[in-house]
Design a protein that fits this description.
By secondary structure, this protein is of the alpha/beta class. It is about 45% helix and about 15% strand. The chain has 2 domains: about 30-115, Leucine Dehydrogenase, chain A, domain 1 (Rossmann fold), CATH 3.40.50.10860; about 140-260, NAD(P)-binding Rossmann-like Domain (Rossmann fold), CATH 3.40.50.720. The protein binds nicotinamide-adenine-dinucleotide. The site of nicotinamide-adenine-dinucleotide (NAD) has 24 residues, from helix 10.
């Protein structure tokens, strides 16, 4: 079984971006800028933001992180987003989710200017994705598409089954695969016979958050499996797939950790450069 190495692929992408940024910054007199807004003290969010900050520094972006208290009023948070919308040095704005209780995340996401929405969560970007128009695309699914491309795994005409219908992974990934001419099914918690669906998949994507939900008997021999799940267990980080069990069945698979995770951050950098290039052209 081929191991689809997201860590290695993400490292290459980061190196490519670093070179690109050096050229772009010289040409335009400034580097791409990313603002990260972090509210409250969710430990996992702090780790994610630190990783994003380090990645930005490595490739030469200007990054600004706003660490805000969890009792910040909604209006103050909205003002900060408004200021970042008007800040010409910031090409991308990322609001780290989840927000503490009492804050309206959808309202905040809706306020981010679509051309700065490097997470691709704004309804304008999601809507453009539905229509097959150019847009800033959600990082995890776009990272998966890049990973498939870089491993020359074609999806046109293939049967793709996604487990999970979230707005940040399952749904946008379904649209991206459809755009690339895959035949797509999206399964979820109410799907009747999950195994019957997954056994039909040439490309199976698990984005659920249940450790080892996908076992060998649920996978068609020769299928490509993408494991998006990140589950913290007593034995460390595991995905949604029984990696060892699937080895004998799948033709290729992403590991956890070192698969989709690193691609998500790489895609954030790609999206920020995309936003910057667009701003420079205006
Ligand atoms: P979510 O909780 O928003 O969605 C989970 C989905 O799984 C839902 O659509 C639900 O219907 C479905 N589901 C739940 N139980 C099911 C079952 N028994 N059978 C079939 N479907 C079921 O989750 P999310 O934000 O999409 O994240 C999913 C997983 O991916 C989590 O483990 C998360 O940590 C991980 N994740 C990883 C990355 C990354 O960069 N690698 C990014 C985002 C999310």
């Amino acid at each position: 079984m081929l191991i689809i190495d997201g860590k290695k692929t993400a490292t290459s992408i980061r190196q490519e971006i670093q070179c690109q940024v050096a050229v772009l910054a010289q040409r335009h007199g400034r580097a791409p800028g990313l603002a990260v807004v972090l509210v409250g003290d969710n430990p996992a969010s702090h780790v994610y933001v630190r990783n994003k900050e380090a990645a930005c520094r490595e490739v030469g972006f200007v990054s600004r992180v706003f660490r805000l208290p969890d009792d910040i009023p909604q209006e103050r948070l909205e003002t900060i987003i408004g200021e970042l919308n008007n800040d010409p040095a910031m090409d991308g704005i990322l609001l780290q989710l989840p927000l503490p209780q009492g804050l309206d995340s959808q309202k905040c996401l809706d306020l981010i200017r679509p051309d700065k929405d490097v997470d691709g969560f704004h309804p304008v970007n999601m809507g453009r994705l539905v229509l097959g128009l150019p847009c800033l695309r959600s990082c995890t699914p776009a990272g998966i598409m890049t990973l498939l491309q870089r491993y020359n795994i074609g999806v046109a005409g293939k049967k793709a089954v996604i487990i999970g219908r979230s707005n940040i992974v399952g749904k946008p990934l379904g649209l991206m695969l459809l755009q690339e001419n895959a035949t797509v099914s999206i399964c979820h918690s109410k799907t009747k016979d999950l195994g019957a669906e997954t056994r039909r998949a040439d490309l199976l994507v698990a984005a659920v958050g249940i450790p080892r939900l996908v076992t060998a008997d649920m996978v068609k021999p020769g299928a490509v499996v993408i494991d998006v799940g990140i589950n913290r267990t007593d034995v460390g980080l595991v995905g949604d797939c029984d990696f060892d069990g699937l080895r004998a069945v799948a033709s290729a698979m992403t590991p956890v950790p070192g698969g989709v995770g690193p691609m998500t951050i790489a895609q954030l950098l790609v999206n920020t450069v995309e936003a910057y290039v667009r701003h420079m052209a205006l």
